[in-house]
Amino acid sequence: MIAFENVGLRYGHGPEILKDLTFKISPGSFHFLTGPSGSGKTSLLRLLLLSLKPSRGTVSMFGEDVTQLDRDRLLQMRRHIGIVFQEFRLLEHMTTFENVALPLRVRGQNEASYRANVEELLDWVGLGDRMDAHPEVLSGGEKQRAAIARAVIGKPDILLADEPTGNVDPELSERLLHLFAELNRMGTTVILATHEVNLLEKFDHPRMLLNDGELTIHD
Amino acid sequence: MTEGGLRLNWQRQNPIVPAGSVAGRTLMLLIGIMTFLSCVTFGGVLLVQKSALGWSADVGRELTIQIRPLDGEVLESNVRLAISLAEAVPGVESARALSLEESEALLEPWLGEGVDLSDLAIPRLVVVRLSDPAGVDIGRLESEIAGISGASVETHAAWRLQLNTMAGTIVISGVLSLVLILLATALAIVFATRGTMATNRDIVDVLHFIGASNRFIAGEFQGRFLLIGLKGGVAGGLAAIVFFIVAGTAMSTVMPETSSQQLGVFFGQFALGLSGLLGIIGVVLVIAGLTAITSRLTVRRYLSQIA
User: Fold this and answer.
1) Which among A91, A205, B14, B78 would be 20 to 30 A from B132, CA to CA?
2) pTM for the whole thing?
3) What is the ipTM of this complex?
């Protein structure tokens, strides 16, 4: 599903942030991406999200070399990828329902066609009674669950998460991890970036360890 | 609220670009002012052009024959001869000699009232009305009048040329002013749009991450700016219409009658008419469209730059 070969990344004329990354991700797998702050986790996630192009090497996703794709094809491909951010990045002026439905709305679907699905998903993540609330009145855990729901409403093949438990307490972190695991069991490939060692020890998934831009994978 | 997965009381969705995040009021005021200036310029140009065309047409329907008093010539006889010769030319409707009193009235603005002109050798004037200004044989008239000693024909051609040149200059200046105002409006919209995009960078990023196309994002921002352009444009257009109504009313009621008449001669009573109103509506639509197109192009350019 995802294959990196000798991928390097630098910003402008700066030093290489990611160095010679070569790895493959199988469909339906769950990987933790970990490493100290500044090791390049977010940059790798941005490569996986197709919002950056590598400075060298090749990145293949869904059987296509994404470094050669035009903008429209990249856009189509990005719709197969869901993303969850540490800081949630919900739109403050929209309700929980509207935030979660946003990926479908930007694809031109009308509300009648997706309302039932969005409501069902919000019930599933435990926000069935908060769908008319705005983000400012949601707790950290509720915001993150809304962000996860937004990431998966479009039924992505790949779900990326950048420190999704960074702004919630340890108990809720574990519950969120179970939510990601459940999504993985339903067939979604998950790559979850975190530097919380406690969480990593509770879940038995392969770890991609980034250190100073170099990657090692521990199965 | 929710029953069986179906919500019965659907609410209208919030816009993706929040209304408050666009520099709305300032931009709307700016567009309103620019529209007002554009409409006033347009209306002024239209009034001057209409008056100049009317004037030129009026003057073009008349000729003047001037007969100077000469020793050995009977002035009254020459005047009658000039009238009969003029009336015989095809395309001439009538010819009439101005009385001495009328001639004195013409000179009054320069010489003052109560001046006795009987001792002065004042030329006599014959006003020739043309039924067909385009078809009249001016050459024949001039050659026949040339046979009368001291008589000459004045076609007002030089004066009409000067009037048309002046009106043309005003029209060109007005059109240039309109173009410059529209250009300034477009530049202001570019700056406002870029500011709005920078303010909403988070929203743009989220939209990109969830797979929104640049076209979709540009459309969302364009919708906001089109609304602002329409509101500002309508306000400016209405203000311009009120301005012309007030100016027209003031001219006919507040100003002294003579001043009012003089202004009326020049501006045609400040009445825009249907063409003026349609023109103002056109200006409003142009400015609203300009706002939408400029903002869309700016957004597309901005999105390309950050991609």
Assistant:
1) B78
2) 0.69
3) 0.86
